[in-house]
Write a structure and sequence with these properties.
Shape: globular
Number of helices: 20
Oligomer: single chain
Structural class: alpha/beta
Length: 632
């Protein structure tokens, strides 16, 4: 047991609201209950603020409690009603029943909060098998569901290790841009993250840890590239063609779960003359330790999340760096980005009952109401505003941030401030990108690239700048869901056939008519615009939905299920109608060059509902929306 000084430092590092909630849940201290924080209007959402006196009281009482060496396992798990009471306390407001459908699960007090279950006796026919394509966050989550249920499965992974995008991307300073406390599964408690925003290597190690701990790793076939999958109407099974290291095999499965997601196919760099460049060209997905940029003239093409993350590290060692910016981004700071988690806080997370749960919840509070910031306020606009009070406030804050970061250099400010509102594209977190642009060896170029010569990049204004190394930070072909595998459904039709008219669409982001027993993870319109939880939790929710579908088929003697066309059409009509309410599709936004919106002007990445509503839709399969085939 550490001494008082250590514990006092630990509570100083702790989040005041999370510490307060953990302390109150464990002790029901009336003094803690009497604290009344203030909800403060902010640019994205309201924040919950405490006075200095209240913070001091919370910390002092937490120190005394921790000195008693409390045992969390001896304390009761709260009931649903108790959780709702605590949520209202954490948010400093009353919550309606519709507000807590998903919310009450987020603190994750139970072991497996989103695990599917058998409703009766487990019945699995001989030879029954599920194929999962991809061993990233999504594929491993699906494997955990099936492992817990005892349903046989194999995960096919084309690379040599787990991780998906967290295995592929190893460029300088790559890391998550959401807090590590929210970028984790709800069933794996108290993982000892070393940084507030985990680096690539740590995220990949986390996925590997979960795969091994929960019985998934031994089911993974590495170096196995699923080239295509065909559904056989006669057998009601899928045949997967798998390219291995030395052979190509056809394997059968009753169910296929496509877990390769949307960030699997790198975007090309289609520039005139690119093949004649004498230097090195590296897409960020191809980065490896042998790539040398020290002392070289480097061109970085792209200023999305990847380009913003790597620039400062590259500029420290390169002779020169030219940043080619096509579209300005709203790039914002994050508290503790790049900072380690202190040992004292690590100790507190492990030892303070319920702190992990409430820290997880509080870490996501700013995104629970995020959807409200995405809706244009017509009254506000009528009175001279641009979008809404929150959005305009955010714009003012970010413009001020840009100005300070570049030392008020007006030429740079003019180049860097977007002409569209914040929140209309994917948020980008600043990794000293703006400051790096002020270095003597860094130049920002906003003129379009015209062509590439043997030794340089030439822009449309005729300027030619030499380069030894071109870093293509141009992202992924996000319109190509679950590529590069080709899926053939009933009658041999492909997903591309179905998606020709309007772009990629799915029912709840998971199923498509004509493709029985095929489910997608992180499919079209699956990313919630708001919810208070990170993507890994949603993988648990979606994989529960899929697992319940599989369990339902097995328990009821069915060989296949396929979403009905009318249910699919009705859902997508409602989705696109709801999407029209959001800023993404407003005429004043960056609809062009925005991967949130497809070439047909439709929202393609996001689910436009509140997190609570989307959770309701994804909670369990609605059998009325599916057609079933009975097993022979």
């Amino acid at each position: 047991m550490p001494g008082r000084d250590y514990i006092e430092r630990a509570v100083e590092f702790a989040d005041a609201n999370a510490l307060r909630m953990a302390l109150y849940q464990a002790t029901r201290d009336v003094d803690i209950a009497a604290i009344t924080p203030e909800r403060v209007f902010g640019p994205v959402a309201d924040s919950v603020e405490f006075s200095d006196v209240d913070i001091a009281l919370i910390r002092a009482k937490a120190v005394e409690y921790l000195l008693t060496e409390p045992d969390e396992s001896a304390l009761p798990i709260p009931s649903r009603d108790e959780i709702v009471e605590l949520l209202e306390m954490a948010e400093a407001r009353k919550l309606a029943p519709d507000d807590v459908v998903m919310r009450h699960h987020i603190p994750a007090f139970v072991d497996m909060p989103f695990q599917a279950k058998w409703t009766g006796e487990k019945v699995i026919p001989d030879g029954y098998h599920v194929a999962i394509v991809g061993a990233g966050f999504a594929g491993v989550a699906m494997g955990v569901q099936l492992s817990q249920l005892g349903i046989p499965f194999t995960v096919y992974e084309r690379r040599a290790d787990v991780g998906g995008v967290w295995s592929i991307n190893t460029y300088p300073d790559v890391r998550v841009d959401t807090l590590s406390f929210t970028y984790e599964y709800a069933f794996e408690k108290k993982y000892p993250w070393t940084e507030y925003f985990a680096r690539q290597s740590e995220v990949r190690a986390y996925i590997d840890h979960v795969a091994r701990k929960y019985g998934v790793y031994e089911h993974i076939e590495f170096g196995s590239d699923v080239q295509q999958a065909r559904f056989d109407e006669a057998t009601q099974r899928w045949t997967l063609t798998v390219q291995g290291e030395d052979s190509v095999l056809d394997v059968e499965a009753n169910v296929v779960v496509a877990a390769s997601g949307v960030f699997a196919t790198p975007r090309d760099l289609p520039l005139e003359g690119i093949s004649g460049f004498s230097g090195q060209i590296v897409h960020t997905t191809e980065w490896n330790d042998d790539i040398e940029y020290a002392g070289k003239k480097v061109a970085v093409i792209g200023n999305g999340s990847t380009g913003v993350q790597l620039l400062s590290k590259v500029a420290e060692k390169a002779e020169s760096v030219v940043v080619y910016q096509r579209t300005p981004q709203w790039i914002s700071p994050r508290a503790n980005y790049g900072a380690p988690i202190a040992d004292e806080l690590q100790w507190l997370i492990q030892e303070m009952p319920f702190y992990w749960n409430w820290n997880k919840y509080v870490a996501g509070l700013s995104t629970i109401d995020l959807r409200n910031a995405l809706i244009p306020d017509q009254e506000w606009i009528k009175n001279g505003g641009a979008v809404s009070e929150r959005n305009d406030m955010l714009r003012e804050i970010l413009v001020g941030y840009i100005s300070r970061q570049v030392d008020g250099r007006q030429e740079l400010i003019d180049q860097l401030v977007p002409n569209y509102p914040p929140m209309t594209r994917r948020p980008v977190v600043d990794n000293n990108w703006y400051v790096t642009l002020t270095r003597d060896n860094v130049e920002l170029v906003t003129a379009p690239i015209d062509r590439v010569t043997e030794t340089s990049i030439v822009t449309a204004d005729g300027e030619s700048l030499d380069a030894d190394l071109i870093i293509a930070a141009v992202g992924f072909q996000t319109e190509k869901y679950i590529w590069p595998t080709r899926y053939y459904g009933i009658g041999g039709m492909t997903l591309e056939d179905v998606w020709t008219a309007h772009g990629a669409q799915a029912h709840l982001g998971m199923t498509v008519p004509g493709f029985p027993n095929m489910f997608m993870l992180y499919g079209p319109n699956s990313q919630p615009v708001a919810s208070g939880s990170g993507l890994p939790t949603w993988f648990e929710i979606w994989t529960r939905y899929i697992a319940e579908g599989i369990v339902g088929m097995l328990e009821k003697g069915r060989s296949s299920m396929v979403v009905r066309r009318d249910a699919f059409d009705e859902y997508n009509d409602q989705l696109h109608e709801e999407a029209r309410k959001l800023i993404y599709l407003s005429p004043s936004t960056a609809m062009v060059r925005n991967y949130y919106v497809n070439e047909f002007g439709r929202l393609q990445m996001n689910a436009p509902w509140s997190g609570e509503r989307f959770y309701e839709l994804c909670a369990s399969p609605d059998e009325s929306q599916f057609d079933f085939t009975s097993a022979p």
